[in-house]
Amino acid sequence: MKTADLLDDGLADASALTIRVLLVDDQPIVGEAIRRALLQETDTEFHYCADPRQALAVALGFRPTVIMQDLIMPNVSGLDLVRQYRADPVTARIPIIVLSSREEPLVKSDAFRAGANDYLVKLPDPIELVARIRYHSTAYHTQIQRDEAYRALRESQRRLMAAGITLAENEASYRLLADTATDIISRSDLDGTMLYLSPAIERVTGYAASELVGRNIVDIVHPDDAGPFFAHWARMIDGEHADGTPVEYRIRHKDGSWIYIEGNPTLVRGDNGRVLGIVDVSRDDTLRKTLETELRAARQEAEAAAAAKGEFLANMSHELRTPLTSIVGFTRLAAEQADLQGLTRTYVERVSEASRALLCTVNDILDFSKLEVGQVSFQAEPTSLAKLGRATLDLFMPQAGAKDLDLVLDCEPETGDLVISVDPDRIRQILLNLVGNAVKFTDAGSITLRTRYDRTNGMLSVEVIDTGPGIPPDRHDRLFKRFSQVDGSLTRSHGGTGLGLAICKGLVEAMGGEIGADSRVGEGSRFWFTIPAPLATVAHALIDGPHADQPTFTGLRVLVVDDHPVNRELARLILAGIGAEVSEAADGEDAVQLASESPYDVILMDLRMPRLDGPGALHRIREASGPNDATPILAFTADADSETTRRLTTMGFQDVVPKPLEPGMLIAAVARATVQAVKCELVSTPPRSSSDASDSVSSEGGPSL
User: Fold this and answer.
1) Is-contact 178 198, C-beta < 8 A?
2) Which of 496, 504, 499 is nearest to 357 (CA)?
3) Is there a contact between 282 and 272 (Cβ–Cβ < 8 Å)?
4) Beta carbons of 345 and 335 less than 8 angstroms apart
5) Could you give the CA distance from residue 502 to residue 437 in angstroms, rounded to a whole number?
6) For residue 64, what pLDDT is reported?
7) By the 8 A CB rule, do 197 and 186 touch?
């Protein structure tokens, strides 16, 4: 057998590798799009896996050169799946490109920490997609070739010795391997003098091997990397690092530029075990390092853009909802006047309806924008499934009654008193969108809200089924897309922004669930979603609104702080109407001044004001040790989601009152604040002595009132 034949297997295997792409995504439409993007790539094999639970098994069988996978899939966390790949020795080094429906810097950071190599917003541009697949596959191929080179070196040495091949033939076999390898194979003594360099050195550095052999490696290593480079060698000699432990450093190209190298040095030992030198198999790592730098810069830019967008959304939320507070609030107050004439009442009711429609549009746009930048948060709490479903249908009773539609709540008997741990506000938001669409588009028949609960897997399934006109098959792809409507023509009979279903999809996926729809023309539609929903640990849940028993506010002193006079006037009318005494301040500075002069029972504080904002006023009132240093202060804001509420309560606000102002919510918040204040006073009041207790008994022997 010839010496060269002994190396054929290893070298042939390395050169015959092709690009193999494994896609893991529960949405077939994504699989089809990526399959089409790869159709013209003749050296590429594509495999689609729709079930993330089978992904690892498929990867072990298919042996991909790159894995692409969605982050949000049913039953399996995308990040956990990445960790599973990294934990298995077969898939540990396969490049992973995670796919997400939107750009989220924090999610991207978590993905990289879990072990992902790249992050793409689906569906990416086909040219970019192919380029990234090729880059990661090429890097993986190179890694395989390097591993094969090590394996071939060791195996050939064993086989050559077993075959009794002469030393000269042995040396020739090594040179054959080194000359044909795409990586640089080098040998140096312990001082760093380069004794041998394979021909690949010229392709990588521009230097011919003859130009560098005999020189010290420190001549071409970057000055900042020389110390760590030789320290790595020293730790290997001392046994702190194993042979082949990677080391990264920069070397100077012949044109003067610096290129990144990833080396895998191995110690060369004599018969007595003494270390004689270093053999290294290294490769050009400049492309990967450049991509990492670009990704890092892109991430920083994305985070900065997300922060700027978040600030813009907060400002827009304030500027849009503040005037809407006045429109909605004063219209409601006007409609409640008993002396309104018939035609005038009709006009007021139309203004009220239009203002609420405008508010829904504004809320949709702001909510979707928050979803895009990952600012939507969730606050799970015990929630009655049956009560939540019934409350949702009750809201649509007037609209359904006008069309003579039946609203049906279909719950399993055993789930009638079921209490689950979910964010009721977000579930309600999804239900309102789905049921609202069903009522809007159905002219006759019924709408059914069906809920099912899988106790084994802790999954909630919800369906909204209507007997409407149905959706044509060629328009199904418009569902759940932003700013997209099934009927987008100028003659359409139903309004809306086209954001409702997109918001539902974003919320469901953010909760780790999935959402979809089935529809047939002339038969109706079925919209469904499933989300993880563990059973709650309490026996009951409060679903909505304040308690039925409202306290009396007669004589209650309230300070309303807002830079918009109409907002102060609206709050004053609502609170004064139930007996409260209301004072007003136009900004934080005025509020601090008034709070230092007179005691109040509750302070309603706007957050965004000139001169001094709400948090600044809160801090100064608390620090002043005046008559209101312990008075409940309520935040009055247009941005009242659960995350903002947690942040504000941590800051020191007792509660949050959202804009546009709802009378019931304002009254409930004030009631909660005053009740809590009374409880705190009772707790902080020291127990009376027995003599004090006897003084409180009247001559009739009963307690004095």
Assistant:
1) yes
2) 496
3) no
4) yes
5) 13
6) 92
7) yes
Q: Which of 471, 470, 449 is nearest to 460 (CA)?
A: 449
SS3 188: strand
DSSP letter for 491, please.
Answer: T
Backbone angles phi, psi at 45, to 5 degrees: -110, 140
- Read off the tokens for 217: 């490696």
How far apart are alpha carbons 33 and 678 in whole angstroms? 62
User: Which helix (H) or strand (E) segment is 96 a member of?
Assistant: strand 96-100
Residue corresponding to tokens 């020191």: 652
Strands (DSSP E) contained in 455-563 are 459-466, 514-520, 524-532, 557-561
Residue labelled with tokens 């013209």: 40
CA separation, residue 11 to residues 7, 145, 186 (Å): 6, 8, 18
Tokens 């000699």 belong to: 237
C-alpha 382/C-alpha 541 separation (Å) is: 5
HSE-CB for 242 with a 13 A CA cutoff? 1
* Tokens 């993986």 belong to residue: 140
Q: How far apart are the first and last CA of the chain?
A: 113
Given a cut of 70, the residues of the chain with pLDDT beneath it are 1-17, 146-182, 299, 302-303, 306-307, 309-311, 313-318, 353, 357, 360-361, 364, 366-377, 414-416, 481-498, 537-552, 640, 642, 676-705
| Chain length of the chain | 705
Read off the pTM: 0.42
Asked whether the bond before 705 is cis by omega within 30 degrees of 0, the reply is: no
Separation CA 535–CA 125 (nearest Å): 42
Which single residue is written with the structure tokens 């801090």? 619
Span 352-380, pLDDT tens digits: 767 776 776 677 676 666 666 555 667 77
Q: What is the DSSP letter of 660?
A: S
Q: pLDDT tens digits for 241-292?
A: 877 788 899 999 999 999 999 888 888 887 777 888 888 888 888 887 877 7
State residue 224's pLDDT score.
92
Q: Are 130 and 37 in contact (CB under 8 A)?
A: yes
Token pair for residue 649?
A: 């309560």
Q: Quote the tokens at residue 347.
A: 């006009």
DSSP, res 649: H
Phi (first) and psi of residue 350, to 5 degrees: -70, -40
- 3-state SS, 32-67, equals HHHHHHCCCCCCEEEEEECCHHHHHHHHHHHCCCEE
Instruction: Answer for the pair 580, 556: CB distance below 8 angstroms, yes or no.
Output: yes
Residues in CB range of 685: below 8 A, 6 or more apart: none
Across the beta sheet with 184-189, the strand order is 194-197, 184-189, 275-284, 258-269, 247-252
286 touches 260 (CB < 8 A): yes
